[in-house]
């Protein structure tokens, strides 16, 4: 761990920064994307600016030409620390070699992007929405920064602004031959009376992009390679103490501690803090806290999950799917009932998926320091942020929103788990008890596996009808499980021309903690949909790609991904004996079709994925190399979850505890090759982080069907399940 003094990690105050930086600094993109020019030599004016805008915003330019761009999104390995500043720098015409990137303050009114509700702004790195939601925001802010610089140069040279151009951090006046760098222009910065909003044009034509779409190394990688990158788990503050919680394996059970006096008598233990669902311990060292945790004597109550057996619930779910009463309507197109009444043939199958754990690399942790008077707090955390950018700490402490300062750190993996704030609030409560000492809370891997928040378990009943010509006329999809959109997302078939569609969700709750897991409902649902497509194709003796081409006739962008992946995978080429290919299409923001090549060890039941090909339409691609890396990571994570990962409960107790009984894909098990082809378009960027993962299950199941003639319908495809299917 890094020893970092409080002075080092505390943010530099706005006034302190301006006094120390010298000259003038330009801050662009405050609330409403309005710029402010702040001169360090004008103390009175500086105070006035801070009274008007209490947080600086998107960019800082100093006299030596250095440009600092603020990144508003979490960086958890997906590349936002580079992608968003690249978009800004593109419109600003900034020299990328002089650009530095820092996390922005966690203030959604200033740094948020358009939310899911009209008029809202969010700082929420989830749902593959970061580049998609910030693309226009960052382009406009960058263009406004460029306009301020152009205005300042025009005023300084006394020439019309229309005669000026920019290039690589330089203002150019061709008529007079004058040039001035952005850094040299700092001394002459002036604000225009009005500022274009660029809603009706004025942004670059994509054909003129120099940074967007080029190969730019990610800004944070050097720090991650040399070990200087700072994660919350690295922090050590003066007088810091350590907190741990014992939560138990039965979600929602209430604890009664039987040996509190013995625990408090242990070396280093400072306090025992009861929670409704856990017992917290604060100690002077992490070792002391963990030692005390091991000897806690706790009596646990029953909970809703008591008696629940996850592997036995599918029969109940099947009965629920058969019940005449409909569930909650998710999507309805045409008249499915009529389609089934007039069908020449119908198909029906149930698909199942077990709970899955997030398995992020960095264990959950946070550092919180509450002031001695309890009226302010500092938080250091790797978070995917959320609707409340202060992560619930103001409500917990009963203090104003502005009294909490969140220092966002790098995340060692998120996948949706770090969009929950439970671990931050736990740390906040311990810190409240220990004020003003800072408290670092750590979850052990066992804590996180046993008391995780999982991708839900579901059963999905699919029914498909075909007319006399073999055309698919109806598609019914019933999802049974807990979690609303966690299980019902990804069920739409907007890119398949099926005239009658019905999707419903039937709720079943067992008191198990649930959360968004990479691609959310798309993983199980696209598996069921794509596997069902191949079952229909097999019965009709139609090539699976040919069937999808027919269904995608009205969706040219989706069709283009299918045709491209068929080309690069040489779909129709013969394969060595014992191998087969499978295909699956996914829409999750971006459009993608994947093909995998597999073999099966018929003695052990082990499936091996040898190659994976992907064709992707993600609109404008800001970082091509990083998009390919995202697709590769998504495929590998998908293979791991599809072939290995499952959380099971017996009598409500989570049976897994660590990676010895929750296996992940090993290096030697990854495909020999993963090839991604990006289809170039000028459409608005779409997310890519969750497109690859949900195509894996369908592609593997479909390759298995082609290879063996047998159907895999229960995730994960563990060797014992594969053997059972092979021997059926």
Automatic annotation (TrEMBL):
Pfam family, any one:
MoCoBD_1
Offer an example of a GO molecular function term for this protein: oxidoreductase activity
List residues of the Aldehyde oxidase/xanthine dehydrogenase a/b hammerhead domain.
226-304
SUPFAM superfamilies the UniProt entry points to: CO dehydrogenase molybdoprotein N-domain-like, Molybdenum cofactor-binding domain
Q: Which domain of life is it from?
A: Bacteria
Q: Which Gene3D superfamilies match?
A: Aldehyde oxidase/xanthine dehydrogenase, a/b hammerhead, Aldehyde oxidase/xanthine dehydrogenase, molybdopterin binding domain
* Annotated protein name in UniProt: Xanthine dehydrogenase family protein molybdopterin-binding subunit
